[in-house]
């Protein structure tokens, strides 16, 4: 170890922040991180990174890192050995399982942990605990996109690669603040737009950087995307601009679909979305004229009561216009966390085994039961949202939560935090004593990406390896080791010595990953799923068939779910999202000094017209009140927002936490919280 302190070392890793999946070399001396250096062969990013990937690493050496397991004794936590902590956890899990049954336990996996760790978390739930109560944070973001794609094209991932977004004639982004949330991808779009004549249409509530650059910026009423998408598709069909050859050869269900569009006339869409008839026609014309259209979308679409249906409508539009299976076309839900794609891919979902094979399918279940030598319930388990409700109802007694500050990031956090108080037993595994961990009975100290090996899957379905840069701090351990130790204590001898063994097991069991091999991903190598036995991978999906029995995609008729919206008492709509400098609730980025200095706290964006009406200005202190809670913050007057729409970055877990305000309403098909459908009223506390 002393030698290691002295030497300068260079190790390849993958960014721990967003789903772009930038890879780079990290230069270190001892625990000191000297610099981050992307390489031309970095498959997702070349020589680019954003500020988070470059400067957001101080958190790994933060004095706030947990270095020893903690066990609650009354009101305080005491430091204990791993042996003691594992004994407490395993005994308590055994007792609860014996007394109330397996389904009284739940597991939440982290979308920041590796694929191998995700695989083990679902295996722990299903094999060791005997429950399908397992979920991950895609429930808070992209589950609706996955649903929308499964219904129509059969895979819940991006249809192609970043190179396809770059080579498209037309890129449409919907509900995505791409320049701040997926900065390196945004740079690619900016370059293609500037140099290659790519057309860019941005549909959003906020006039952010990409909206400023766009050829056309469209601002619909909040939560009305399905309406304009359907109207534009109907107009395209009515004009005969559809790709009839593609539809005849490759898609089922056209007639029913056309019928379902009947009500989505231009007049109806104009009234419900506020987008003028001319702009609706322009949208249709742009798609018609483009040889290849790509649609990227994010939380503005998915975090709504009809998030899955709107994602479906996007896919329907692409099918109707033949925009699948060719380079420069397709659907691209942009994944938030570095491994939110992987956490779902590797089975941390209540209804799916790894590779999206259904737990309800007896053949699939049998394969896992024979391998794992246990019975697995045929019924899907509870998702995150249902777990919170089940705790309130007294059905769920224990929760094992990995790397997720659920008490801050779930919607309506007062409701979530009061659920934590009701748990009989709560284990949190994390880097820090998060606000959620404060409710735990046992806190297990985990190691971040720089301190372990494994793979992450970016938004392009690209698996990339990370190599160990630093030793685990103090007595912290990589999540895969912690979960393995727990499984051993509970009578299952997992005996993995290396993450590669875990991936080999997953690849064997799951068709999607049959050809995934560590050797193929050495260094800057990567593989995009699905990968066949001979290790061939897939940069572009659907070139010949769609993964349904008959090889054809399906039009899936959907109808608009009207958002709850504002009312007389709660007259302002509040939107939320990322800031470039911060990630998510900020648990990591607020511990990076340079980033914190630059952007120390969240602020509430207010339009100039609303500021004038309420007599406030930049710096004023206001309080926002919703039916579910209240949040205080300082005002930033900006033309990025218009009229009665406010915007609050989600990166503050202090008193300006957006989820004090959000409701328990969810997407009707996936239970993803409708974070973007929040109404508030404003109280002015201090004008100055
Ligand atoms: Fe790349 Fe995203 Fe990391 Fe920025 S946050 S360096 S865009 S992976």
TrEMBL record:
Top-rank lineage group of the source organism: Bacteria
GO biological processes: formate metabolic process; respiratory electron transport chain
Listed name of the protein: Formate dehydrogenase major subunit
Originating organism: Scopulibacillus darangshiensis
GO CC entries: membrane
Keywords: 2Fe-2S, 4Fe-4S, Iron, Iron-sulfur, Metal-binding, Molybdenum, Oxidoreductase, Repeat
MF terms in GO: 2 iron, 2 sulfur cluster binding; 4 iron, 4 sulfur cluster binding; formate dehydrogenase (NAD+) activity; metal ion binding; molybdopterin cofactor binding; NADH dehydrogenase activity
Cofactor: [2Fe-2S] cluster; Mo-bis(molybdopterin guanine dinucleotide); [4Fe-4S] cluster
Entire-sequence positions represented here: 310 to 997 of 1046
Ranges of residues in domain 4Fe-4S Mo/W bis-MGD-type: 8-64
Stated family: In the C-terminal section; belongs to the prokaryotic molybdopterin-containing oxidoreductase family.
